[in-house]
Amino acid sequence: MDKSKRLFLKPKRSFRRRLPPIQSGDRIDYKNMSLISRFISEQGKILSRRVNRLTLKQQRLITIAIKQARILSSLPFLNNEKKILNNEKKFEKIESTARTTTTG
C-alpha cells in the first residue's frame, strides 16, 4: 500500500463485548420486579431500547410487563417521591411560621 492510502484507513479498535442485560434463563414477566426495575428510570419512565441494549422482541415484552405491573399497582405510574418530600418540608416550614405569628 502507498503511504497516501494508509492515511485514510482507520485503525481497528478493539472493544469489549458487553453481556446482554437479559440472560436466556430470565423470564420477562410482570411478577419479576427485580428484572423490570432495571429498565425503568428514576422518574418511572420506560428506558429506550438503545439505552437498554435489548432486542426488539425483548423490549416489547419488557414494555408489556411494565404496563401490566403498573395496572396491578406493583409499580407506580410516576415516581415523584422526591418532589413530595420537598413540598412537605416547605409546607411544614410555612405552617410553623404561621403558628408563631398567630400565638404571639
Mean pLDDT: 77
Largest sheet: none
Helical residues, percent? 40-55%
H/E topology pattern: HHHHH
Q: Can you put this structure into words, describing what you see?
A:
By secondary structure, the protein is an all-alpha fold. It has a domain at 31-99: Ribosomal protein S18 (30s Ribosomal Protein S18, Irregular). Helix content is 49%, strand content 0%. The protein has helices at residues 3-6, 33-36, 49-52, 56-71, 81-103. The mean pLDDT is 77.
Question: What is this structure's SSE topology?
Answer:
Blueprint (H helix, E strand, L loop, with lengths): L2 H4 L26 H4 L12 H4 L3 H16 L9 H23 L1
Could you write a compact summary of the structure shown?
49% of the residues lie in helices and 0% in strands. By secondary structure, it is an all-alpha fold. Keywords: Chloroplast, Plastid, Ribonucleoprotein, Ribosomal protein, RNA-binding, rRNA-binding.
Please supply descriptive tags for the structure shown above:
5 helices; 0% strand
